[in-house]
Amino acid sequence: MAKRFAKEGAVLLLCSRSIDKLNILKLQLEEEYGAKVYTYELDVRDRKSVDEVIDNIPTELKNIDILINNAGLALGLDKVQEGDLDDFDIMIDTNIKGLLYLTRKIVPMMVINQKGHVINIGSLAGIHAYPGGAVYCATKVAVKFISDGLRMDVVDTPIKVTNIQPGMVETNFSVIRFHGDEQKASKVYEGIKALEADDIADVVLYTASVPEHVQICEVTITPTNQATGGVVYKK
Known about the structure:
Layout: H1 2-7, E1 12-16, H2 19-33, E2 37-41, H3 47-55, E3 66-69, H4 85-113, E4 117-121, H5 134-153, E5 160-166, H6 173-177, H7 182-187, H8 197-209, E6 218-221
Parallel strand pairs: 1-2, 3-4, 4-5, 5-6
């Protein structure tokens, strides 16, 4: 998404826990697209850190047009009764609370500026539950309903709210889910042509590029051979 928006001339404020990787990306975007890129080390689970980062953005950059809440993860595939409570906490704190912290901080600026677009990265898991994914699925249901509720709360403003709901996307998602087990993660995508990060970025850019009077509320995207979280055809 950073590459897509940089190519279109956007000024980027990128936040991540992995500041070293972010700074490498910053150099790439500046060299390839001549983009203006600012990077911030941020764990969205830490409300004080969210406040500090946003409060210290230079005044001339606080006219934020688009907020993309992309931080999110799944951990484990255990049954609820057998799951790791620390994993539960991390998923809830990142996928729900982190999204809320940034939304609560930035949307008031958008209201003052009378323009803005909040794009939340939800999941197909927010529509269809699957075995071993109850808590993760619940967090993505929350993303859907926070998006729907926010859209109602700003209906008297020009602010748009979009919820993007991808199915299987081959990124480091499964590596994180399986706590770094790359071999186990790779098996998730065997026998199916999964979506790629670029596919999601294309859709996000499109939702942000439609005319001012058009709001794309929700987009669900799956690979051709996936129907729901649990209905997948693999060769």
